[in-house]
Task: structure prediction
Amino acid sequence: MSNASMPAPVHALALEVIGMSKSFGSFAALSDVSLRIPAGTFHALLGENGAGKTTLVKCLVGYHQPDAGQLIVDDREQAIASPQDANRLGIGMVYQHFTLVPSMTAAENLVMSRAHVPAMIRWKEENDRLESFMQTVPFKVPLHVPVSRLAAGEKQKLEILKQLYLRRRLMILDEPTSVLTADEADEVLGMLKAMARRSEITVLMITHKFREVLAFADATTILRRGRLAGGGDVATLDVARMAEMMVGSAIDMNARAQKPPRIVTDAEPTLVISGLCVDDESGKLAVDDVSLSVSPGEIVGVAGVSGNGQRPFIEALIGQRLARSGTVKVKGEDYRAKRAQIAALGVFSLPEEPLRNACVGRLSVADNMALRTFDRAPLALGAWVRHGAIERQALSWIDSFKVKTRGPHAAISTLSGGNVQRAVLARELSAPLSLLIAVNPVFGLDFAAVREIHDRIVTARNNGAAVLLVSEDLDELLELSDRIVVMSEGKLVYETPTDQADQRVIGRYMAGHGAEAVAA
Result:
């Protein structure tokens, strides 16, 4: 297909929001929020969990209708009543979770994403158009491979390519690097930044990573409790100032739990995993001959891109999935993750998505906090549950773990994500602890909750617990871990002490390029 037949180049659009408000019943999710994003710029949207970021962007793409305010697109007032209106204006969104059809190829996903698809697709012509399109964009992905066979980084690139293919002029990115390695994140954001500088697109990015804001954003807008808390040119801001605007008070960026150097002793490892093999839901081998040990007073971090066996691995350790073969020992005892054994050996866990995996949503905060011990003294007297004791325990833990709730009898499903996590932490860290298994413990949480939960994990380690920390956030692992291993395609492919870690090498192993990492 000749270049002459290609559509005219797309030019970035300018966006201005004036006095936007949105309420859900009596709850004001947005109150008089204004922001301005010049065409061809890269803008970061920051705020704690529940600050109103998602509500704002959903108003911009037509999923919510604001109660008040104006939206100016390229100097003209516009009403966006539906996602179709946003699409016509050239506004698109890349969501935090993939929206691709796994069984279809990348080419099929792109073509089928159009607003109007003919009843009979002429694939020769479509493939010619796609090949010409791919020559104009910075990301390269295999077009004729099923999406299910693409790596996470390639899927994220395809999500962005889809917006470019649909000729979006303003791209909204929701935590776009949560599934990317550090190298992939820098590549993707760097290319989008270059496109913005050429005035081909405008970018609005929601992120919790200050490093990305400082490296790629031109300006930022910061929300707090649904209101505009501040912002400005990134060149005039530092992390401490942005964090202060997010939480409403000065933040000591160095005030966190001290992590003294680990003292190596002859003590037997608390956790010993030998030759563990675990199947996924389809019966395919997902965890392949994994062996690993974690010693008292040590945090071992497991790095890896999502979908490389981490979930079946952890589910096998915490009793949610049967292993095909291999052994797990805790304090020298064969470990089956039964309730009595968990209590006797002091094994506790902080699983991913705790509201789904660690709580019963309709039960109260107090009852959820008592799930481990409701049938034992002092919460029970023989066969009788002592509800007063359960309430007193909950009130104590709500206070010490700063759980924001209407009270101990509120359903735990009514709490924010950070407060659900605090409630689970209270339950899991308040008993004598030998082993803590934590999986993406701060995913999607606000700045204050992240710091508090990290401090609790480090304190457990300092008190002698062995900690197995699985996270897709390499920065988190580098901050907390004493030792890092990389899981790729269900195998442990690399190990390094954290104080000798090379982030780029780890990232290459995470992306499945171990040989290149060694050569580099």
Observations:
- The first strand starts at residue 15 and ends at 24.
- Residues 3-247 form a domain with the Rossmann fold fold (CATH 3.40.50.300).
- Residues 1-5 have pLDDT under 50 and may be disordered.
- The two ends are 39 Å apart (CA to CA).
